[in-house]
Amino acid sequence: MSRKILFLFIFSCFSLFCKAQVTVDLSIDTLLIRVGEQTKLHLQVSMDAGASYDFPQFTDTIVAGVECLEESKPVITELNDGKRLLVSKDYLVTSFDSGHYYLPPLEVLVDQKAYQSRQSLSLKVFSVDVNLSKPNEFFGPKDVMNAPFAWEDWSLVFWLSIFLIPILCVCFYLIIRYRDNKPIIRHIKVAPKLPPHQKAMNEITAIKSEKKWAPEDSKEYYTKLTDTLRNYIKERYGFNAMEMTSAEIIERLTLEPDEQAMDELRELFQTSDLVKFAKYNALVNENDRNLVNAVDFINKTKVEVDPAELNKKQELTIEEKRSRTVKLSLLGGIIILSLLSIFILIYIVVELYELCF
Question: Cα–Cα distance between 320 and 53 in angstroms, integer?
Fold first, then answer.
């Protein structure tokens, strides 16, 4: 019985000892550096899970001559199924004076109890050899230099600024047109189209006023006169008289009620065919008669059009141009161009700030 109690006592003491076991290790990447070079100290502590810990912190120096530049955050690794923890932390150190520096053991607090690393280190810092026989190879400190101008840094800002100008102009123009309730394109009055008979009469007047037609000019005279009549017939009756013979035109017009007008037209075309194809020289009075026949035919077959109705058909009003759909489209275009302009402007300002400051 006494042996069993002794065994339990020894086992309990051993368990407490194992549970409270804490080890601290210190290592360094390299023990030799040049002046100004950097190396890392690695501090690790092994302890039971759930214990609190506190690593040393250095504001500037670890020991005289060795400076701490940066501390990493602790990295925790679980061991033995989470029963033990391995916590490590790195310190970036350097020295600006040559010499041999002793780094004492570092201390870590675990559950408010101090534990020192099992290692102490030494750091050797040596200077760069200088050849004093060649002083021209060494230069003193230089002033701060301005960065050289690089077009590739400014090109995007430049082209976006150029692109922004027409966008702003178009946006401003659309806003003015929308505000004034005017169409995008200014209202242009379209001249009314002349009726076929007025157009033909104007051409006949021009033929008559050109000159006194001589018999030797009969071919040119009848060519112009019949072309005028063919264009009139094409617009008046709706068939292509320009591509038809005189006989085909007369045949298409046989339903015209005015027989006298058809006889006069038939006589005019017959004379024209003789002049153009049989080298017939018409007399002056014959030319005048055929001109009168052409005028009579036009006057007897013309269709009068109300001028007010013609102007109404040929001219678009502002109300027709500015439909609700057009207004919505105009407003949408203004919004899109405005947002695009704002985005480009913000981007340009940000880029200029980064380039200048």
Answer: 83
- CA 318 from centre of chain: 34
Helix (H) or strand (E) holding 270: helix 259-277
**74 Cβ contact partners less than 8 Å away, ≥ 6 residues apart:** 53, 55, 87, 88, 89
Which H, E and C letters describe 40-90, residue by residue? EEEEEEEEECCCCEECCCCCCEEECCEEEEEECCCEEEEECCCCEEEEEEE
Distance CA 38, CA 124 (A): 12
pLDDT tens for 236-292 read 888 888 888 888 888 888 766 667 777 778 888 888 888 888 778 777 778 788 888
Q: What is the pairing mode between strands 121-126 and 32-34? A: parallel
Per-residue pLDDT, 14? 46
* Distant-in-sequence, close-in-space partners of 54: CB < 8 Å, separation ≥ 6: 108, 109, 110
Give kind and range of the element (H or E) at residue 99. Answer: strand 99-103
Q: How far apart (Å, rounded) are the C-alpha atoms in residues 354 and 349?
A: 9
What gap in Å lies between CA 200 and CA 323, rounded to an integer?
38
Taking only the tens place, the pLDDT of each residue in 327-338 is: 777 788 889 999
Share of the chain above pLDDT 90, in %: 24
Distance, CA of 235 to CA of 229 (rounded, Å): 10
**Mean pLDDT, to the nearest integer, of 151-162?**
88
DSSP string covering 176-202? HHHHTT--SSPP-PPPPPPPHHHHHHH
**Mean confidence (pLDDT) of the chain:** 80
Burial class (CB in 10 A: 0-12, 13-18, 19+), 180: exposed
* Number of residues assigned to the chain: 357
